[in-house]
Amino acid sequence: MHLLAEVGYFEPWWMQLAKALVIFFVVFNLVPLTLLADRKVLGRFQHRYGPNRVGPFGTLQAVADIGKLVFKAQFRPAGAQGWLFAAAPVISMMTAAATIAIIPFGDTVDIFGTKTGLYGVDPSIGILFAFAFGGIAFYGLMLGGWASASKYSFLGSMRAAAQLISYEVAQGLSLVGVIMMVGSLSLVDIVNWQADNFWMVGPQLVAFLIFLVAGFAETNRAPFDLPEADAELVGGYNTEYGGGRFAAFFAAEYLNMVVVSGLIVTLFFGGWHIPFVDPPTWVDPIVVIAKMCVVLFFFIWVRATLPRLRYDQLMSLGWKILLPLATLNAFVTAILVVVLD
Amino acid sequence: MPYDPGDVVEVMRAPRDSAPAGAYRAFAATLKGLRMTFGRLAEGPNTISYPEEKTPVYPRFRGRHKLHRFEDTGLEKCVGCSLCAAACPADCIRVVAAENTPDNRVSAGERYAAVYEINLSRCIFCGYCEIACPFDAITMGHDYEMADYNRSDLIFTKEMLLAEPLERTPLRMADE
Fold first, then answer.
1. pLDDT at B128 exceeding the cut of 90
2. How far is CA B87 from the centre of its chain?
3. pLDDT at position B94
4. Interface predicted TM-score (ipTM) over 0.90
5. DSSP for B86-105?
6. How far apart are the C-alpha atoms of A196 and A275, rounded to whole Å?
7. Contact criterion met (CB < 8 Å) for B47 and A304
8. Count of other CB atoms within 10 angstroms of residue A146
9. Which residue ranges make up each domain of chain B?
């Protein structure tokens, strides 16, 4: 068989299944939490409380919202392309969920006498896995917008396509420096390297900033939320969606946010590693999730701060600033790696 | 006649940043903005959680009307003169006067208001009735929660206006 990527499967099948369920459960529960945090923290930024009616301190608001959406009647516009219309949210959701698999929450540990890595998979292509699914994720938005047979949806999906392609280039290039310094694509190797040496955010500050900005663009978050610019596009690619399918799009967006924050933590902030402290292994996943929460807070903070970019500003930022900067960063890193080695 | 700017139009433009200067300025401005919003976060919410917590009103606030009695005798102050109805720009007050008799003494004057109705769905809360009243029989109270399901329920009769309002609105303190 032609092998495209080497995946280090060394666990028995039941452990892989259990791991997948646990990781999916934990990260999926982060989605309504992020949703709630987004609204509550954004409220605090604007001198108000945010949702505070459902449950104690409004903590059940996200659950109530999702419940309401799921129980709504499915609606499909007359001109919609049947199964594509239904498939689009599934693609969005699946790609977002699949990327979680490679985020490492800890190193290999012993559970029930089996050697288990605290991550879904650790493929040899590592970070390319995330970009591959990022590339597929754009089909979700694109098909969603196109299959709805609506002008605004289509405009939104065109914007999303252009934006995702533009920023994926810069995002991928910004990581070349990190990969060269570590000498491996595997995220577990990258974290272990950072634990042995130093956090990547120091030497690769430029790469971090580019990855962060591109990450905002990839997740369609403010200030890059042009695909769903509600004032101009009524809501973009998901205009014609309602009920459970809209919930899927919405959840995929927040899931992407969680994934990007996980990648940022893994690639630049040393994953489960805390400097000068050597905690027991069971703390590792908690450390990763805590770091992810900080990054998620930053996402919300930026949303509260920056206004939406104009479309030409978005394009010129992506192609004229981030891409040359990422290339330069990769170039300089390459020279330094060779010279200092 | 169309506007003719002449042959040469000179447009003054501010000098543009060079690319690095522009990038630096954008970066610095972003950081400044982030600090600014974080300051707002630290200040905490300004919300008054309305149904639980009511905004205090000023003493001059013009809310729902009140009719008054003399405190010592318990007689109504209103003598049914209809001056309030005459002053009302929204025409929402209806007064029907009747004569006081020795065995049925309602007000201190010669006559009293047999019917006194204010249609609050028409009232504009201008307070002219209060100004027009020669005996201070009608004043504007402080209640502002008067929503109801039926328009007919918004016609307040004399008994309702004379009664103390059930829910009192907090009065603003001098230093608030």
1. yes
2. 19
3. 92
4. no
5. HH-TT--EEEEEEE-BTTB-
6. 10
7. no
8. 20
9. 17-46, 65-162
**Does the structure show a pLDDT above 80 at B100?**
yes
Contact at CB, A47 and B38, closer than 8 angstroms: no
Q: Which among B30, B38, B45 has the least Cβ separation from residue A48?
A: B45
Q: What whole-number distance in Å separates Cα of residue B34 and Cα of residue A305?
A: 6
> d(Cα A96, Cα B62) in Å, to the nearest integer?
57
Backbone angles phi, psi at B114, to 5 degrees: -70, -40
pLDDT value for A147? 86
Per DSSP (E only), the strands in chain B are 65-67, 93-99, 111-119, 138-140, 155-156
Least confident among A19-28, A207-216, A261-270, B165-174: B165-174
- B121: Cβ–Cβ under 8 A, 6 or more apart, which residues? B151, B154, B155
Q: Please state, in angstroms and rounded to a whole number, the distance separating the CA atoms of residues A251 and A245.
A: 10
Q: Is residue A53 part of a domain?
A: no
- Cross-chain residue pair B49–A49, CB shorter than 8 Å: yes
Write out the residue range of the structural domain in which residue A263 sits.
74-340
Q: Is A324 inside any structural domain?
A: yes
Tell whether B40 is within 8 A of chain A (Cβ).
Answer: yes
Q: Tell me the per-residue pLDDT of A46-89, one tens digit each, with 9 for 90 and over.
A: 888 888 888 888 888 888 888 888 888 887 888 777 788 888 88
Q: B65-162: which CATH architecture?
A: 2-Layer Sandwich (3.30)
For residue A14, give how far its alpha carbon lies from the nearest alpha carbon of chain B (Å). Answer: 46
Residue-level pLDDT at B60: 86
Total count of domains within chain A: 1
Instruction: Give mean pLDDT, residues B104-130.
Output: 89
A124-147 confidence digits (pLDDT tens): 787 888 888 888 888 888 888 888
Q: Is the residue at A195 inside a domain?
A: yes
Residue A73 per-residue DSSP state: P
* Contacts for A104 with CB less than 8 Å, ≥ 6 apart: A117, A118, A119, A122, A187, A188, A191, A266, A271, A272, A288
- The burial of A97, by beta-carbon neighbours within 10 Å (0-12 exposed, 13-18 middle, 19 or more buried), is given as buried
Report pTM: 0.79
